[in-house]
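Reopening: structure tokens for the flavin-adenine dinucleotide complex, inputs below.
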Amino acid sequence: MKIAIFGGGIAGLTAAIHLLDKGYEVDLYEKRSVLGGKVSVWKDSDGDSIESGLHVVFGGYKELQSMLKKIGAEKHFEWKDLSLVYAEKGGRQTRFEKVQGLPSPVAELVGGLKTNVITWRDKLSLVRGLLPLLLFGNEGYFRSQDDLTYSDWHARHGCTDNSLQRLWRPISLALNFIEPNVISARPMVTIFNYFGRNYEDARFGFFKANPGESMIAPMKTYIEERGGKIFTNARLKEFILNDNETIQSIALGDGRFVEADAYISALPVHSLKKLIPKAWLAHEYFYNLFHFVGSPVANCQLWFDKKITDTNNLMFAHGTTFATFADVSITCPQDFQAGQGTATGGSVLSLVLAPAHHLMHLPNEVITARVMEELKTIFPKAREAKLLKSTIVKIPESVYKAVPGVDKFRPDQASPIENFFLCGDYTYQKYLASMEGAALSGRHVAEKLSAKLKHHAHTPAETV
Ligand SMILES: Cc1cc2nc3c(=O)[nH]c(=O)nc-3n(C[C@H](O)[C@H](O)[C@H](O)COP(=O)(O)OP(=O)(O)OC[C@H]3O[C@@H](n4cnc5c(N)ncnc54)[C@H](O)[C@@H]3O)c2cc1C
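Re-run output (same inputs, fresh job):
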């Protein structure tokens, strides 16, 4: 049986891996020349790795880690100390750390009480507000919180506004690139549950080189070694339908046609929306995809001639254009090192700029100048360092905005069209749009497709 997958991000590549393991023939078509979608990385003319976005692996990403193990890439990332590091003005850093050796949630409570990010009043309000969640929260409860914004949830649970602004706003911006008064409470309380329940699950891991070399390249190798075919510069242009609305073939942008036993879209939802045949919109399933809107985000990379920080971890900032960032010359020991491209041994910062709706049409020089001014207030050493190079990647529609009410519209991987399936971080699985969510959706689609095809193979023809 031949399966055609469209979209070469984590979801499409993971689906290909699982389908090949189940014995299917797989062809994957990716629009761009580079694989990886939102985690794609490419070399520019200076030989520097340009990332679509700074990416960290959470300890709780069990599916992604098991996929990395399957493809022999489980050692391609490394864990950092469990700590939320907040970069403050004047070079100061404040931390939120769990206390090792104590059981959860005591470890988080004691760690939270010790932190100097917020005041004692804030801390006590958080203990009162978050403790029931840490003790009794479950998947059903998280999903039920999707009708509130996180700010509303925070206030309703008696937590202070200062703790929202200082501690959780940078997390909300890092998670979904939107403000806490826009994001649904559901993803935020899910994350607290992570951080508050299990020590291992809350760790941050960085790819040793970058997501492209450390993860996407071994995924490609795994697929090709098992006979899967990957076509880049191959854009899904149009679905050609049979009279019964099933897919007859797919037209590619270059004039070719693809025929298969089943078809999977691993496109981002905003791209799929533009291609859905009108006939399918009578199904609620497809109509509901129009509830999803992409979050704008930008990633800025800066090369310095000197080290401006020695922090080997993800950092958060508040009141700045960037919400979260890292010195990848320190966190990623196999890339961004002296002698590689522009790097001379100084810091190489990768910064996620959010919220970013207002940045999309601003000239890059203006954005970079602002980021530099802010960095100088956070890292005094940046005042002495020379900026060697800067780049900005803007993504006007990245992950879907996890606003209240949208979670219920996330589609199952099996569509009402007999030979058409969906995967992608926005499809239904327990995580927010993320690498883990994309990997989970890839496994789910392989299982659902396989179950459906097997069922048909065993059903007598006259009853089909
Ligand atoms: C700046 C940034 C930082 C992030 N940081 C993190 C992080 O730290 N941790 C984390 O877990 N997640 C993070 N994410 C989210 C994560 O990158 C995504 O959730 C995940 O990569 C989505 O994978 P996907 O396969 O579902 O979609 P995508 O990666 O969007 O892949 C879809 C693919 O489909 C292709 N395509 C589009 N149209 C067509 C067409 N017509 N024909 C063929 N192909 C097509 C695209 O080119 C793309 O390759 C971040 C995202 C961004 C933007």
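The longest helix spans residues 435-458. The mean pLDDT is 93. Marking as resolved unless the reporter disagrees.
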